[in-house]
User: Fold these one by one.
Assistant:
Number 1:
Amino acid sequence: MTLDDIRIALPLLILAIGALVTLIHGALTKNLLTGTIIAVITAVGAGLWPLQPPPTTLAPSLGLSAGGLSRLFTAYFAAMAAAVLMLSHAYNCRRRIRGEEYPATILFTAFGMVALAAATNLLIIFLGLEAMTFGFYILAAIDREHEISNEAGLKYLLMGALSAAFLAFGIALLFSVAGSLGIGEVLERTLGVGAPDPVALAGWGCVLIGIAFKLSLVPAHLWTPDVYEAAPAPVVAFLSGGSKAAAVLLLLLLLPRAGDPALLRMPLFAMALLSMILGNLAALRQNRVRRMLAYSSIAQMGYVVVAFIAHQGHGFQAAAFYAIAYGIMSLAAFGAIGVLERNGCGPTLDEYHGRGFSQPITAGVLALALFALAGIPPTIGFTGKFLIFAAAIRAGEIALAVIGILTAAVSIYYYLRVVTALYLHRTSDVRDEEINLAETVVLVLSAALIVLLGMFPSHLLDFLQAQFPS
Amino acid sequence: MTPLPVLTALILLPLAGAVGLIPFRKAETAAKWLALGVAVLELLVACSTWSAAGAPMTAAAPKGFFLYEDFAWIESLGIRFTVGMDGISLLLTIMTALLTVIAMLASWQTVNHRTTLHYMLLLVMESSILGVFLALDLFLFYLFWEAMLIPMFFLIGIWGHGRNIYSAIKFFVFTLAGSLLMLLAIIGIYLIHGRETGTYTFGLSALLGTSLDPTVGLWLYAAFLLSFAVKFPLVPFHTWLPDAHTDAPTAGSIDLAGLLLKTGAYGLIRFGYPLFPAAARTLTPLLLIMAVTGILYTSWIAFAQKDMKRLVAYSSVGHMGFVALGIAAWTPVALSGSILQMVSHGITTSALFAMVGMLQSRTETREISAYGGLWGKVPVISCFFMIFAMASAGLPGLNNFVGEFLILTGSYQVAQTATILAFLGLILSLIYTVRLLQDVLFQEERQVVAISDSTAIENLMLTILALGVLYIGLHPGPLLDMLALPVQILTGGAP
């Protein structure tokens, strides 16, 4: 192991050491705040490191890389972890979630995501993905005092274990055909020229099922509404913004290097179509805001899959852009929901009535995030959808684009219902907003990013374009 | 020295004003004055662009555009911040700036809660509407096109009455769903042009020359037409409008009728016809049918209305039918008439909505049957009401007559049946307007209602609008001169 290897692996090391320090600190003192602060500093440090250009881009002995995409997503995941931690402290105090294991688990989860982002072989990918999912098993059920939280955690655990089994089995099958775990070799030998090996096909099928679970695509979406409803709001923000982006990133690591992923088109097409239609239609019927957003997330991931299908029309960069866009939007949305809940807001839509005026900052950010999720300009959600539909039309997938835009039209209705509840319904219940500095910073920053990246996406787009030469 | 980017300033000034109002959340009186100041300043800047009309055009500008600004924006996708002003945009810009001032005056005494937010939204609205009227890049145009729904949604929803929430959602979903397919069509023409020429751009002047396969062109144009028809609104896509108007506050109605509806017609003139000339010609009969059906159907429905505001709303849809007729004819005379009619309609309909709002705030009702005998009780209000109602009915010497006359004259050469039917619609509108005047102003008082005459601010607002009515009605020459060149370029003939 050389110095360069260490420099490439440093974000991982920072996160792992930071998590250990947080745990030890928790064992020595019972001060939760300092533990959270240590964790935030760790995450920010891990996020800042990859911003500088690395000496080399590959560390073959570790199976890690520091390519552009890896560094972008490493910074993104670490920043997401830091933001989630900043949102968590006050929320957890209110819900009486104590203990140093919470910030430490967030860091371990981020560790898994970052490992996935930097992976160059299937083994590291699997380890990263499982480290991440393992963290979420704990986080989803961390609110032990609530029955519903345990149930959701169990559901997530069972489905997650199943998907992990599929992933592991798929990777094993691919390994048996390709005789290697390196991503490049596997793709070359399983999806290369000539008739595909049936064993390799089975392997790819298993891997896809595993990823579909992480992305909560129909028909592997059943866990989503329950977990979104029961887990602590910052955890949902992390799940939505982090774990989904990680699954998208996994596809981005695999698919662009496949010679011709036409074989995968059929299953992807079906999942995109079903996710967009069922996700949006189911969201229409929800009266609980978090469940509504869970179904919305299913639909949103359907749009990302559209981008993958349209890879010949610059779909990969559209998918990467949308993954980040969706992460920022859900951070803003669930961050705001967390603050609202901390101010005594219940789960149903009725409870949101009139909060637009009693809690201007939080509700404003939530409304902006919802408009962005609905794809209204000038927001990052609009720019992202624009890129996806442009890719779909460029690749000749007109039918998918039309269905996508029609389901987007349907989705506007349920997003508007929340905005309506916030601003249009009047309520006699007037109270002052209680929001601390850390929450304000995260919410305002993510709102600013939603608008600024929506209006001026050039830098990010140019960067992504360079990562996926056509 | 590079000239000041006045068009960009026109778009950004109201937006900056809206942001500047945020600290005045609690100081509502100061916020009102500040907002009005920004709107008046905007109006002055808008009027000052008139003087640029005769100036020589810069080389980069497309023909007919005397002001043109072009900045790099999202280079990798061929998106630029391109805005330009020709005679058509100039008239609509001044109208927008004027009506924003009017909307603020109309809200001055009637909006008493969340006042600062109300004025902020009016400014954001102005900004996005101006963006629509000035954008020469399809992406930019679409951005403003959708963004303008957000302030309108809140205006209807927060300050509206009756079923305001239902109407606000209906308005938003209807108009947005209509325009989403246009987004796909915009991407479509961008890609087709890019494949043909190798340069991918959303710039209107570059896209104008795109040669399209007839079938593809038809589909793309249909998507544009659907989006514009919903905004217009043309029958049968009009159902959102009466609801939105009925439940909107006065300023919302003024913005809706005066500004928002114009974007549909403007889009058809600026983008629909020029981008897809062949497809537009093919679908002209459809547009004619929708226009004439709209004129006759809404006039007929207007007869049955008991609510004054609904009646004005339906009459407004009818008048927009005339605008559509003029566009469908696409002759220089008819098109000039359509654009002039857009401005006239903006002034007259806004004035009528303002008057209905004034009456409602005094008597708490809009039922026509509750009124009667106002002429003797509130002479100033009645006098203004009479002027605007007669203008709306197309009395010669007042503003609507000029536009309608030009539209009918210009259309008769190309679509005789449609023109004759539209003329019948004109007669119907005269009848229901006279009936409205008879019921509200002259008939015996039916219910005893306490009512006071107009205040100074209302007089100011109504006088400005009345002057506009008379100016366009008696001396439309300068406006038509302004339209001559762009219309000639659009239709390819001599006006």
Number 2:
Amino acid sequence: MIDVSVADQLDLFRERFDRIIQEVSRRIVGQDEVVRFTVISLIAGGHVLLEGIPGVGKTSLVRALAEVLNLRFARIQFTPDLMPADIVGTNIVQEQAHGSAFFEFQPGPIFANLVLADEINRATPRTQSALLEAMQDASVTVGKSTYPLEQPFLVLATQNPRDMEGTYPLPEAQLDRFFFKLKVGYPDEAAIHEILSLMGQPMSSVVHVMDGPEILAMRQVARSVPIARPVQDYAVRLALATHPDAPGAPPLVKRYVRYGASPRAAFALVLGGKIHALTRGRAFVSEDDIRAVAFPSLRHRLLLGFEGEVERIDPDALISELVSAR
Amino acid sequence: MSLTSANSSVRRTALLGNRARHSQAANLLVVRLVPWAAAVACSASAIGLLVGGPRLLGPVLLSAIAIAAVSVSMAARFDRRLTDETVAELDRTAGLGGALRSAHWFASHQSVSQGEVSDAWLAFHIERAAAESERVDWAAVYARPSTARAWGATAVLGTVALMIAWESPRRSPLSDVKSEQSDSTVTVIPSHLIGQITEGMKVMQDGGQPSKDVMTAVGQALEIAKNDKAARRELEDLFAQLAQDRERRLLSGSWVDSGQRDDLTLPWDEGTPAPEWAYEEAIAKASVQQPEAAAADPESSSTNEGGSNREREPGLTGSATSDSAAVPADTRGKAGSFSSMLFGRQRANEGEPDALREAVPAAQAALLAALRREVIHARSDVADSNRVPTVRGRPNPPSPPRVGAPAEPARGQPYDVSKAGRPPVVPDARRALLHAFFARVADDAALSSQR
């Protein structure tokens, strides 16, 4: 007989996921896929890099998500003069009542559940690197003290395209720490009409559909989804095929890619596939789920070579070649 | 549904699906190939009927086709080892969204650790996949192709093949035609070529040179015979026929009566018949010399013309002792022995006073001279190319050598047998004469000794 609890978990997961999407979509119009993958990344515990031109709703998306999930939200506007201490916090001198002084750690904005790193590529690489430990280990080290971050912890960074003025490309190590990279495109005509119609109305308040512990519970459910070895092999082969020196790499990858995806990409493919399967009401992962999350999982992990940079090769074209070939 | 039964159900479902898949593939194969195979069998039967091939070829092919079709259909019913690719294809075709593939893998690899995945989730997945896949109608998923048209065509073609095979021993049009052709004489070489070849062969058998038209005709006939067995056979038959005609002509003689032909023997060998040309030449000489002799001796000439009181000429009477016939200018058709005429030369040498006796030896001498000239001609054929020319008068300036011609020996250089070229082929008509000439030396010696 079918395990009812598992079936209930599956239904509950799907219901919650749909509710999140529904509530966020009330504020963000015309970016359904971005919202969907952002929520998937949130459930997976991964960070999201949102890339798009200004004014397409990147910041609004993160803010709406924080409100829907009832999480502690912090926004960091990255500028070229931003210092790492401005992000992670610093020790400041405190004076006690009897006159003695001591250092007290003053947490930075990184100590939140949902951190919006707005225009992250406008800060210097040194400041950008201040996020590395927090994103990877969910902890911050200041001086000799390491401070854990509260879970769920999620960094949603927005960046303008790299060729914009006054931007600093993110280092590869930091790029790899983003679970997904989502391209926030320009909304279509109908979406713009809807946005214009909403502008005259007061900002609608979103409903808190869940909180942090429920997000963590959903994360645990997502990791319980079984994945058959052939499907997992597919994800691994897909990640390995991004390496130009791999035997199964397609010609486009061999020509334009300098470095391929790291093992974190395979992890993102599998975990993202699991959550994608759950959102479809399935308790198993199929190759379709892997393919569905292949683009946001791989596009920021392909480091193009000189020829690819010169010819302005879109990594999505390479991923499309990979997905269609396998 | 327990996990074990769910596992079994998933595996069984996959096997059923794979069986249906193979069955569909086998049916497709059979439906596509069997009508063509039946057409081949029908064609084989038809060809066998036309050219007289094996009678049972069509039925044998039909039987082989039937056996192959049944074998393929039966083989599709056997369960095969399922690979992940096969199950993935089954899953995809049935539209199960990967559930069957994943569940089948887990059902087949239960010992593999799944890390954080609990057994409850595995059981849930497999049981749900089993329930979903059991609802799949594999017969509908892998529907059998429409076979009515294919089997109808196969039935028609097979029936035709069997009917042809049934009819083939009774009637075989091409074989009948062949037998008719083999009975009748088929002329492959054109008749005008046959006529020219026959004429040319006769000329060559008589020692003459055939004309260019004849040689062209022979060449055309040989060209035809090169690629055509019937023409070659016809040509061989023609040559054999001509050879037989020549032998028959030599034996029987077409220019003289058989009774006279028996008497016409060579002077040195009465058993050897004299050739026609020798006879004609001797008679021509005699006809020329006889008027001359008559003019020189009118008496004898008048006596000769009257013939009544002419002394019998042994050479013209058929034998040395016979005196039954006079000697006319032309003895053909008249009584007289040619061989006795030749022998009469010897007696004429003994001193016959009569003018007629003078004429007869002249004919004999002319015959012998003709024979000797013939032999000399043959000898010159042999030695002429290497003979030292006789220098008479002012020598001509040296002419450029002919291409392919043998080197001309220097003047005064003795005859070198080793440099002699290959002698030309002696015509068959002259072989007997040559042989008789050389044999005559011994005969003459014997005669001299007898004398």
Number 3:
Amino acid sequence: MTIASGFGLTGVSFAYGETQALAELDITLQPGRFYGIVGPNGCGKTTFLDLLTGSKSPDQGSVFFENQPVADYRRRDLARMVALVPQDFGIDFAFTVQEVVLMGRHPHIGRFASPAAEDWRQVDAAMAAIGISHFKDRFVNELSGGEKQRVVVARALAQQTPYLLFDEATSSLDVQYTMQIFNVAKRLVHEEGRTVIAVIHNLNLAAAYCDELIFMQKGKVAVSGPTDTVLNPAMIKKVFGVESRVTFDDFSNTQQISFRYWS
Amino acid sequence: MRQSGYTIWLLTLSLAAATFGAIVYATGMGHIAVPGGDILRVIAARVTSNPALLAGIDPVIPFVVFDVRLPRILTATLVGGGLAMSGVIYQGILLNPLADPYTLGVSSGAAFGAALALVANLSLMGHFSVPLFAFSGAALTLLVVLYLSSFNGQISANTLILSGVIVGAILAAGISFLKYLADEQVAVIIFWLMGSFASRTWLDVGVVTVALLCGLGLSFFYARDLNILSLGNRSADTLGVESTRVRWILLLGASLVTAVCVSVSGIIGFIGLIVPHLMRFLVGPDNRKLLPVSILAGALLLLVADTVTRAVLPVEVPIGVLTALIGGPFFCVIFRRRQRRAI
């Protein structure tokens, strides 16, 4: 299979020992779009991202990135194209915030070279965009969970990659910082033509920011397509098993979902 | 606490100077005191093969300096550096500031090998039997631990630590059994286990130097990757680090350096734990700064400890006992202080 650019997965399966995480997955991800991956816990969303980054290799099938199998890329080359904001970001060592963000420049700096002016500029810009410049000299192991998460987002931004992968990147953030990060991501997609692929648990957040939604269920893609066409009560019922209503909300200027919480 | 770039350079240079000074000074200490100037002259005479430099020096002095003291002193210095270096690498890879070179059971393996050679009274390789058995024991243990903890070529920090503990426990039972079998030979085993630099030769110096140089090359080459590995596997992968490969290479390198150190000197605890820990406190966790400072500090510390037991104390206390007796309580103090700060 060939696609002009972006990611293409054909017949991809992956299992952890006996447990099947992904089964016969076929999907194409085009560049310049904001993708949201939604689905119940344990449906294979994180494994899906790990296959895109080459962190895991499929048991069957193939994962292509820009017309080449992901497995054929050198890690360093891929790291200049694809950045990941992981779910787990515990660091036990006392690096400063600035040092961690600078690690985002790792694939751009030669093995024995020092960071160039451009590297420092990107580090400063990333910290400014996420609003963490004022605590750049603090130690990451002494930050709160939310602060750490923002540092990791800044690190991924400093990496300056055309593709950004978020694995529940805002799970421990309050509404203000969640919106700040997604606003930055949205701007990167719409103004710079970058691609964001985000695993999101909050369906309203996904509805507000994503151009395309991928509903995953039991290791398969239940449906994928433009948010307006695939986000509906029937699909939410099918994938999550809950009752909901999808309406256009003119205050937020986007589709929003309300749930019937108890009855 | 954390020092700036300039101060770190200064610290590295002063540690290097202090280590060199301590080597010369320690060589003068002992039953026969030798002034520093004479030591430098003896060394210069050997290096340049110019006997004229020895004029006016007691003919026994060159022998004492060159064939008795220097091999022991240099071995202690190199082993100290090697253990501290392995400590830094282990702590970085196992994502645990409390790991040390013996966490994976390398020391237990070496001890078992040495005990076996001593009990069986193996002397087929003469003076080298015990070190060779110790090294083989360490290397085999490492292989078993790595086999137990790897799955599809991946290794995780937690399974490594757990496998090390399990294999170490089995080997400890084995060592006890060997001691039981040894009867009157048991004293030799116990003495070996406590570590010693007595009667080291230039060959020991050479072997440890080669191991240390290999370890140095590897660890400096991968120092920045080791920094990135502390962010966790998935992050390191997506930042362009071949994390599985780097982890294997560094683990093997550090373990082999440890195995060589243990086989020439026995089991010397706490250097590989405390030195990286203390130095991280001063220079921060960046391995490019931490490695040189730790290696020098470990070298200096073990040299001083060995000199104290050799030339200062009225009776020679086994070096492993001394480092544990001084290092242990000292470590408890910093540990406690850090806990209080964290709360």
Number 4:
Amino acid sequence: MRADRDQPIQLRVDRIACSAHGACHAIAPEKFPLDDWGYPVPSAVVTDAETAAALVRFCPAAALRRTAGG
Amino acid sequence: MTELERLLADAGLTGRGGAAYPAADKIAAARANSAGLIVNACDGELDAAKDWFVVSRHLDELVHGAGLIAGEVTYAARGGSMSCDLLVRAGLPVLRVPDGYVASEESALVALAHGGDARPVSRERPLVFGGRDTEGRKLRPTLVMNAETVWRISQIVRFGPRWFRSFGTPGEPGPRLVTVAGAARSPGVLEAAAGGPITELLHRAVADPAFQALSVGGLSSGFLTRDEAVGLRWEDAQLAVFGCSIGSGVIRVVGADECPVRHVVQTLEFAARQSAGQCGPCMFGVPAVSADFAALAAGDRNRATHLQRRLTLLTGRGACRFPDGVARYLAGALRTFAADVDAHLAGGCLVGRARRYADAS
């Protein structure tokens, strides 16, 4: 199935892979507030396709994944 | 649905390791995926001893139950424990599990069984469907079941669902084991059921009659004050009112002459060393809230807001539920021992022979 450009996409944070680089916060600060130790607070976020692609691509730990349904 | 699954569904058996998931559903998923079985006999919860009870007294039934579930069975026990020795002597395949609270967590056992470290793995769906460990190694479909649950399956097959349902309540049927620890003259494992008075369990264990509180479910549940516990029945609906659950069936009695604040400080110091060091919110968050609580106990009032905020940063933010459990435990302690914490903030202690915590933190 072809991904619709405007279709919202859900991303999940792999908590084991995440190592607090903060790239997600830099790209989408309102979606990814950081906790006291630099880790993103939410475990899953919904965003537009373009932002989602950037988030997945620029996470240095490859900790952001599209969820199965998203 | 197979005959076994129908029997277990009729009996209403739920997992006795803590999560209380319907056993029939788990087994149906395991069989659909040709999953292997790991029998968890690690007694992973603080003070738990019921897995040892099952292994030492009902090994034949345990092996019988396991054989009904899967063709390939492994028995997980702490390396060097009495359970481990007994299982090895019986000639059974044993998975030796290292120390550490999360090492006996379901996904950690599956990773260990596949040659990895005994550390939890990230998963999008239960490992009964298979998955991958942190190094990308393939994990075959595996069902993990608590030893008591497997033993109950053997009993249900032999004695029937009607026998099983003659114990407990319609919502939480069947006999179930309870471990009583702490301030009791006859601590240990009791054969009990849901629905009975908690005071009866305490009486059977000859608990300190002047106890201050009960820690229920170790590091994954909460506390009951003495007033709350008296008159309460051992069932989830009643326990839930106070943020507790039957869980893996552990009750630790906080005695009359024991400072509950000190007990919580020590338990949290233990918890702070138990993170597998994988997920940031757990690796940093659990030691942080432990230090915050120790500071409160030592009279540092400024840490209260810190602690309240950080408590919200633990839940749902790990690959396993360890940080969630610690958050529940600590929230329960703050609720139950508010007056004790206030006394500590004022430099004293409600329990005689007040101890100072400045040197403990």
